[in-house]
Amino acid sequence: MPPPLPGPLAQLAPLLDDYGYLAVGVLVFFDNCAIPVPGQTILVLAAVYAGAGQLSLPVVVTVAVLAAFAGNGLAYLIGRTGGLAFVHRWGRYLRLTPERMARAEDFFRRRGTLVVTGARFVDGLRQTNGLVAGTTEMPLRRFLPANAAGAVLWSGVWAAVGYFAGSNITVLYRQAVRYQVLLLIAVVAVLALVGTRAWLRHRRRPPVDAGDRIPHQDSGEDVPADGRR
């Protein structure tokens, strides 16, 4: 029998009792596909069950990895095929302007691999990183390895937490959630700092007078409007 469980884990126990690995796969899949369901919680719970001998830990981890990879991949596909149209039509209502999307695209071009790999450890980013990666047209050749690495790391870490926690699962789970909230705050602070620096840099940039320089017809160089080099 598993040890006494804290609130969120206890509430999911009947679901895991009835559906086992299927419950893990379905919730983890949707949790990684822009739908906020307790996929991470049921992964921890399944690992606790594995520690009590009621489930197989290798199967739990395999199911979680495959479901996390597939869910994030579907979110990427949705973003890649329909994300830009959504932004163009509804973005102004969400304050998601073309300029902000351009900055997001530039950020994912430079840091997208790290974001996709580590995003699963932050609630909110876990559900949306694939969608944003697709919307900003992150290359598939970069997304797939990052998605796979993130799925393996996230599934392995939380499965290990549940498996080795044993009777200390209540205390350990609360501490893990607390540190996850602190990590989310840190990520938001860093993004706000980066955004503020970019905005200040843009504000300080002197305006360019289009009439001062024209492209040279032969070399393609910009030359003064009077034609002198």
Q: Explain this structure to me?
A:
By secondary structure, the chain is mostly helical. It has one domain (about 5-205). It contains eight helices and two strands, in the order ααααααααββ. It has a two-stranded antiparallel sheet with strand order 1-2. Helix 1 crosses helix 2 (about 20-30), helix 3 packs antiparallel against helix 4 (about 55-90) and helix 3 crosses helix 7. The protein is elongated. It starts with 6 loop residues before the first helix and ends in a 5-residue tail after the last strand. About 30% of the residues are buried. The mean pLDDT is about 75.
Main β-sheet: number of strands, strand sense, barrel status? 2 strands, antiparallel
DSSP strand content: under 5%
**Strand arrangement in the largest pleated sheet:** 1-2
Q: From the alpha carbons, calculate the radius of gyration and give it in angstroms.
A: 23 Å
